[in-house]
Each structure stands twice: as structure tokens, then as C-alpha cells.
Amino acid sequence: MLKYLLAILLLPLSQLHAQRTETQLLSGPDKDHTVKWQFYCTAGRNSGKWTTIPVPSNWELQGFGKYNYGHAKDTARGKEKGLYKYQFKVPANWQGKVVNIVFDGAMTDTEVKINGQSAGAMHQGSYYRFRYDISKLLKYGKTNLLEATVAKHSANESVNDAERRGDFWLFGGIFRPVFLEALPVAHISRAAVDARADGSFKASVTISGAADEAVGQLYTLGGQKVGGEFRAAVAAGSPAQLQATVPSPQLWTPETPNRYRVTFTLRRGGQPVHTVSKTIGFRTVELREREGYYVNGVKIKFKGVNRHSFWPSSGRTTSKALSIIDVNLMKDMNMNAVRMSHYPPDDHFLAACDSLGLFVFDEVAGWHAAYNTPTGTKLTEEMVVKDETHPSIIGWINGNEGGHNFDLDPVLDRMDLQKRPVVHAWQVFRGTDTQHYINYDYGNGTHLHGHNVVFPTEFLHGLYDGGHGAGLEDYWEQMWREPLSAGGFLWDFSDAAVVRTDKGGILDADGDHGPDGILGPYREKEGSYFTIKEVWSPVFFERREITPAFDGTFRIQNRFTYTNLSACRFTWKLAQLPTPGSSAAPAARTGSITAPSIAPTEYGPLKLPLPADWAQADVLYVTATDPAGREIYTWSWPIAHPAQVAQRLVPTTGPGTARLTETDSLYTATANGVTCTFSRRTGLLRQVRNAQGLIPLTNGPVLAEGETAFEGLTQQQDGANVVIDAKFGKASRYQSLQWTVYPSGWVRMTAKYFPRDYDFALAGLSFTYPEKEVKGIQWRGDGPYRVWKDRMKGTNLGVWTKAYNNTSTGEPDGTQSPQYPEFKGYYSNFYWLTLQTTGQPLTIVCDQEDVYLRLFTPRFAAKPYNTAPAFPSGNLSFMHGITPIGTKSQKAENMGPMGKTNMYYDYSKDPSYAKEITLYFDFTAKPAATKAVGKR
Can you give the CATH number for the domain in which 666 is found? Predict the structure, then answer.
């Protein structure tokens, strides 16, 4: 024994510890950190000459080859290849080790040579990690030459079918990192784990070379040992099977992404020879037939989105920083899941899902067609080996929309130690129904009328401003109620607009193919982002009005899956809002709320300790923050209603008396330097002037829908006011229309009308104002984003300012990204506005609740499908009924009750049921306003 101990003491220190895998990057790690390689492109731009290219990258974004969208037919297919060369050195002390060259992703057929000799068979398939053992090809301690030939399109037609003919951009090149790994001859080549919620742990450790035993040890991420070592003997040709038990482990969920580290050490002759570490999580995944998807014994509702690996200036080459940004954006929208469409992602994205907390469905590529079995088997195995230990992955997807090769299901079953469920996107398979783009009520015996666990892996197909938030509230409330619903996955995360280096750097979404995102291409937040954030909030407020009897209590529901609301933080704010032309308001009063103990799915009271004079405020805000400190949402409730605000703002008295003159065709009212002209033939406002000149508001009020049947005007002097009344025939939808001109120069308009019977697209009144003269707007109401009838959530009551823009959501405007929030559209809960113009500002105040402001007509794309709803005539409207918006594949009417046309019916024509709008116009002379600046 003494002789043995002395022998150990005399060993070099490096041999007393197991060797870890050594790595050496040959490329850069990501889109922001690259390495120049020599490059030759065989076709397209900058082809036929040797130059350099950053690696990793897609060569189109570097000025080479041809841009291709998957639907487009490429006559040069097969001709476009990239030839790469790179010289590198390896340490002399790597000799005698196993040295692999590893490609994390290359598009798509890749042939590799080291020092002029083939490293192995061509790899076919773009999104998968592959490696070659090049130990015998290297010159140790000397310079080596790497040569790689990458074909953009594959010689294997099944690869082209699965990857290269999809509804997304196609790129070429080595787009993920390339590195060397050096391992001892005896080493661990794979370590699969299964760590369950009950604390049971097992691992299957695959060994290359001769060894005696494999030893495992669990640690916290802080480095504290968890239990003792566990070990298993190594038998030649078989993985070592290790087991352990951890009492009461901290579980991994999206709400509590607790992780551990496990270290596996390979030993021979009692000596450690190789060590690998994996970050894992304890959780149990089950698919219970005719019941639901369960994680840790709790039924899951997926609040998910589809995500491509994509950045406008780098294509499929991304970065760890971008992965963290994207996962945080999803978490900020209160999502709990993401689908990898339509291929496995970068490892750093999965690591971000692990650490920040998102369920993941990892996917074998296949878009309407599948890999053949030999190719698909190899690629599926590569995907599982790379991704299997990530606790975020709770299921595998075998192909998309018909791109399923059934021979690959047994491969996933065989490869996955955890036996996670396998689903087929858009297919009934193994007890799941993942049908895409289902209507709200989809039919007999299927979807939510069937018996399978339902979660559409794509729904509400975004296009421009349609889908996503539009329709989501209806779908989600249905999904939340239905026991067999497991939620769903929106299509998709961000607009796929690529920088065209061949067209001066413009952003190109390939027409209507790419602008499908909740976010813009550079992650600009579109309106649906905030709608999703509110609809998918795990804190649900039951609707209530704030009345004088309000005691500060709301009834709320906990829609977390695992978290008690007592772990969250709630704050409140009482605010006075600025008046027109002002940005200042009294300081808000704030406070915190004792978070109630409400278990998941349960209801309970949230009691705000408001001051006694709370009713003097204009608006109440409540903010919920999750246990990690992330804002869940901020809600707002009006305290002061439009009639109260109008009474504060509108002066009626003035220095004199309002007067009226008439001609055969016109009434002209004057007061305090303001002159208003009304047509006696149409009843419409014709012209407004003051001491500073013309205010170009004209041609109103015009009904959005319905017969006017105008018969004439009458006028009277009512004290110091002038009153003008319109008369209408029996066929008119108008009940009454009255103008009152006050001595102050302010003008009141009150209109009562009946919308069209039964159902109608639009209800309200319009005026015309020249758009070219508008610079911006300040308004009080819900904002800053516009709404649609089926996308009402995601806004807050406040005073907002916004500069004019002509953004068409999701459609790049020339060389620039769209500006958000969009300027044009409908805005809910309207109180007042001030148009900031090239001339005089115009202020309009409303004293009625439930009025929408219509601000001009958005610019819609040439081919908008169902995403260009009707707008009324004129361009400045005050509405009681507005239109919903559809998706790329669905009409709004099929997306739930909110997508139906407006309904109103009163056979009696009782005037008390008429819709009423009262507006006050400030036509008095004042200085021109400065340009607005948008904010949220």
C-alpha cells in the first residue's frame, strides 16, 4: 500500500485529476464575434474569386451568392457553393488524444478535408451538430489546413424537401461555430440523464475506449455537493447505467427554473481519466391520454410562440446575447413555452430557456415533406445527443405540416432516456391534436369537440397587424376553460425581414411571406406584444367598475401553474393626468399591497389600502411583479370619466355673445374671433376660421353607415349661445344633430343616431382633416397602441404624445424599420385630443364613455389577406363600433365572438337607446404646437 501511495505522490499533478474536454475555436462564437476565413463562392454575387468571409455567417448577408426565399424557384439550384479554407495550429501535447472537428451547423451539404485528406463522409442537413475524428490527419504543433465545401442546396432531395422548400428564407454557409475538441483515448462520448420530480436520478453514460467505472456527483450551481457519489461498472460495448436519489429536490419549471450540475468521471485503474459536466433540472414530463400535458404532476396550458433562429443582418447566425434577449421578451409577454420552428436551435438558446424558464418543443426539420429514413435517422440522433440534457425540453416534434417521417418516431423513443412525448405538428398523433389555424369553433368530433389533448402548434397566423393579439382573448379564455386544451403556440415571434446587401441594405420580408411576427425584425414591439402580455398575464382581474362605493377590493384569479400569488409583489398608483398642451401633472401617490395567498387557478380578493380621497384622482394603476422581479402587467382603471373631464376643460362663457348670420346656402356663426360655416343643404360643417386663419376641419359629421335623410337646419339664439339643429326624415339613422356655439369660441356638437339594425361593420361620425398638415397628436385615452374590435387589451389609460408616421405594421418602409407605435388607426376610451399641425393646433374633447378615436386610415400592404379592415369615410372619426382584424389564414369572423360584426337592435326606436356622441371643439386662436415625440 505504501508503495502505491508513493507512486501516486510521484505522479504529475495533472494526472491526479481527470482530464476535461479541451476545446479550441476555429471560428468566432457568434454573429458579433467572427473569424475571417478564405472564401470562394461558385455562383451569384462576388463569385469566381478567392476572398475572405467572417465565420460563422450566412454568405448572402456578406455579399455573396443569391438571396432565396423557400417558395421561390431557383434556376441556379445546385450551382451555388462556398469553398472555405482556414489555417490553424493545434498544441503539440494533443498528440495521442482523440481530436474531433465539430461543426454546429452548415447549410447544407458539407465536405471537410484536413491537410488535403477527407475527414469523412459528406454531412447532409443544415441545423445539426456533426463531428469528424481527425486525430490521424493533424500535424501536431504545426500549421494545418482546413478545407470545407458547403453546398447551399443538397444533393439529397429529401434534405431539400425537408429544409430547402419551406416558408422561410434559405441561406448558405457555415452559420454556427466550428471548433476542435480534444479528449483522452478513454472518454465519455455521451451522457444522457433523467432527473425526475420525485428525486430519482438515472444516467446512461456512453464510453469510448477502455475504462473500469463511471462515477457521478450532483452539485448545486453554487458548487455544493448534493448527496454522495454514485457509480457503475463499465462493460465493453454498453453504456454505464448510474442511479441516485435526491430527497426533495428543487424542481425545474418555467416559474422556478432550478438547476443542478452533474459531473461524470471515467476511471481506469482507480485513476480519473475524463470528466464531463452537464447542467440539468429535476422535473417529470407526462402526456396523459384524454387528459392533458403534465409537468411535475401539474396540468399545463402552453402559452407559446414559434421562433426562428434569425437576425436581419446575419440570417440564421445568432448569438448568446440575442438568445437571452429573445427569451426575456417571451417571458415579458408572460409566455411559458416556445416551439423550435422548424429545426433545432443554437445551444445557447436552449441554455437561456433552461436558466430563465421556458418549456421547449425541439423539432426535427421537415416542412411539408420529410427527410428519408437513413438521413433523418442520423440527423435525429444528432439532435437528441446535442440537446437531450436541457430541462427546458419537454417534448420532441417530428416534422411540420406533413413533413413527418414515421420511421423517426422510434428513433426519438430509443434515443431519449427521459421518454419525452413525441408529437407531429398539425396531425392527430399519439393522443394529441396539434391542428394548425383552427377556427374558434372547429367542428364535430375534432379539436375541442374531440377526445385528444389539444394544443395547436401554430395558431393565429400573424400577418402585419393581424393575428397574435387579435383574437387571442377569445381563444385563450376557451383554452383556459377546456380541460382537454393544453394551450397553443402563436405563429410567430418576429418578422423575418432580411437586410438585402444586393439592394442597398433595404429590409426585405419577401412580400407577405415574412412579416408574421409579434415583434419587428429588430425586435420592435408591435401592438400585439402588449395585448399578449395582458391576455396571458398569470394574474387575472375580474372586470369591475370604479364607483364611489369602491373599497379598494378587486377579485383576482391566480393563473400561474405552480406559484402562489403571495410570492408576487403588487403596487398601486393614483394619478392626475395632464391637460391639453401640458406634459406636467401633480405627483402621483403610490403604495404597496399585501399580496394575497391565492393558490394556482383559485380566486381571491386583492385589497388596496387607498387613501380616503382616492376619488379625486383621474386614474388608478395596479402593477403586479413576479417572484423574479419581472413586471407581469400594469392595469389601469378610470376614476374620472369623460363627462367630468370635459366639464373641467371646456369654457362656455366669453367676452361677448355668439351671433349667427344666414344666406340661402349657409349658416355662419361667430364668437370670440371664431367663424363657423354650416351648409344648409347638407347640414355639414363647411369651414372654420379664427384670427390666425383657417382651421381645415370640414365635411362632418358624416355617418359611418346608414341613411342620413337630411331635410334642413334651424337656428335659434339661446341666451349668449347660438344653437343650430338639423332635421331628418323618417328613413334617417339620425335621431338628432345639434351644434352649439359658445361665446368662448368653443363649439359643441351633440349627435344621436341608431346604428344599422342587427349587425354592422362601423358606427360613428366622421370629419375630414388634411393629413399632410398633421405633425403629431397628444391625446387622453387608452394608448399608446391602436386597437381593433378583437384586440382591445394591451393599452393603458393615460395622456400620450405621438409623432406622425405612416407605418404599415410589419412592412418595412424603404430602407428603414417601421416606426412604432403606429400613428393611424383606432384608439379606445377617448377623452380628448390635440392635433399638432403645420398650422394651428386643434383640440377636441369628448364627454361620452365608450367612444373610439379614429385617426386617419392606415397604409395597408398591397396583398393584406384578411388584415385590411374597412374604415369609415373622412379621416377623423368618433366611433361606437369599429372593425376586427383577421389573420393571414382566417377571417376575423371565424376567430371568436370578438371577431364578429357589431350588433345592435332596437325595434322600438326609443330615443333613450340611441347612440350619443358629444364633442367640444376648441377653434380659438393659439400658437402652433411643436412636433410630438412618441412614448410609452
Answer: 2.70.98.10
